[in-house]
Amino acid sequence: MQPDPFLHFAEQQRSYELIEQYRALLVQDALEILRRDPDADVVGFILDGDTPDVASIRLALQKSTGRDHPPGIVLGAVQRAVVVAILRANAPATLEHLPPMRTVAGLQLPMVAATRNGYRCAATRLPMAGE
Q: What is the spatial distance between Cα 30 and Cα 52, in angstroms, rounded to a whole number?
């Protein structure tokens, strides 16, 4: 028997809304990192406060960014290696959906939203210098 595709629809919608809501902030954060290090490979990451294993993920993000992340939603651009490690430990099947940052068409920001019922991957084009 197939699981009900609408069983966790609200959470699926939540992950989509989180990406849409924080897209501009994640792009801004990524561009700031790329100004300092043009070769950086970053992913926009959104961690909803009720995500399973939130404590361990929050700790990994704190170690990576050097910033304290209080309870609630955590977001920012972080090194791809950190996001890959989080996904490998918590949702390995998601790795195949994580888009690259550099494409033939230019730079894009891969994004991941982590919620209670899973992870959503997306990407958005990064503006070129002067845009």
A: 26
Q: Is the CB of residue 41 less than 8 Å from the CB of residue 108?
A: no
Q: How many domains does one find in the chain? A: 1
CA–CA distance, 127 with 111 (Å, rounded to integer):
15
List pLDDT tens digits, range 75-104.
889 999 999 998 998 889 999 999 999 999
Length of the chain: 131
Q: Considering the domain boundaries, does residue 19 fall inside one? A: yes
pTM: 0.82
| Closest by CA position to 18, among listed 73, 65, 85 | 73
Range of the domain at 85: 9-123
**Residue 51: inside a domain, yes or no?**
yes
The pLDDT-based confidence of 50 (bands split at 50, 70, 90) is confident
Tokens encoding 121: 């991957």
